[in-house]
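hey so i finally got around to running the thing on that chain from the lab meeting. sorry it took forever, my laptop kept dying and i had to restart like 3 times. anyway pasting the input first so we r on the same page abt which one it is
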Amino acid sequence: MKQYLLIIIVCLACINTSAQQVIQLKLSSKISQSNAPMVVQLHKYGSVKSAVVEIDGMETPCQLDDLDKDGVMDELCFMTDIAGKTIQTASITLYHHGKPRVYPAKTYAEIVLRNPKVKEKNKHDIYLSSITIDQETGNPYQVLHHHGIAFENELIAMRIYMDKRQTIDLYGKFHKRLELKETQFYTSEAQKALGYGDDVLWVGNSFGLGALRGWDGTTPTMLEDVKHRTQRILSKGPIRTIVEVEDAGWTIAPGIEPVNMTLRYTLYAGRRDFAVDVTLNRNMSATEFSSGIINVKNSEELGDNDGLRGCWGADWPTSDTINGRRETVGLGIYVPREYRVKEMPANKDNYCTVIKPVGNHIRYHLTYTSANESFGYHSAREWSNYLKAWKRNIDNPILVCEEQSAKSFTAVQ
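ok and heres what got predicted. didnt touch it at all, straight out
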């Protein structure tokens, strides 16, 4: 009997041990950073169902994401504030049972199909997780409510037009909170009276904030010839939202074999910037593309001639200059050196940067502010200082060392 009991105890110990794993990380940074995102790849840890993250002994919210939708969590993310030249200890417990812990939502994303029975512009109620539109669709811009996928955190909110422009249009907030579920980018007068934000940028055919376009050697080109356009939500949660725009069968120019391109936009809680990761289905390192920011009317150009471009200016976001108001915004784009070909002189429409892939990948970063914000920036000088600090943070990611294997890797910024 004692032998059987011993076997049961040993077996139970093995089950408990295999049911969870603990990872110990050491985090360090050359400079002080706040709301710095950290990402752990989970493929080597088996099927993870839940996780707890502690930094220096204090639990911090985390998020598990199944990015390829195969039922297995691919990444764990969390955020940290760290002082320069210090070391933090992050303890991550991965569980192979249970459900993800619930933390307050700090990000949101939506794809809303127009409902012809709904008359109020912020009450449409057909929600999708993805949509694909074929080339035969005459005007894809009009298919979706607010014209494309929308996503936000408590500071900023954007929508991406589902047409040949694929422009990122901007929503400015007065207060820190999630708003798109209530306003759907069409804020009512009653909501405005309660301090809700609204559309703050007229984009036209410009880059808006960081749209990716082709490049014909002198001019940006639209995504005209695309067989299938897809927009999808990969995740939305307490730490981040990830959305994708896919262009399948894009003929960049006559005579060039069509390419499949996916743009992934990752927005973290507590930040006013987001990363754009462009993936192509083959090596395109010899092909040039373009991106940039709109030249807001009478804007002041900001930048460093080394990948960072920004502006500060004001314009009407709509053609209704009677009931609307001019909106002041600060915009920014940072293209790291490995993807940058050249920065073009500003013209009346854009601040343009010519870029090219490394193999089949491009990565760049976008940011903005609205002068309406009670928590943001209110002058070109303040915005310029922010942009410089923003670039410095991107160029100095937090260093991470896993204690068990002493294998170093860097955080995803």
